[in-house]
Amino acid sequence: MSVASLLISGGFVYTGTAFAGTVQLSDMIDHAADAGQGAGVKDWKQWPAVGKAELRWFVFDVYTSELRSESGRYQENQRPVDQNLVLKITYRRSIDAEDLLEATQEQWLHLGYAQTDIEQWSKVLAEIYPSVSEGDELSFVIHNQQGGFFFRKRTQADWQSLGEIKEPLFSNAFISIWLSPETEYPRLRQQLIGGV
Question: Which residue range or ranges hold the Chalcone isomerase domain (predicted)?
Answer without folding.
Answer: 58-194
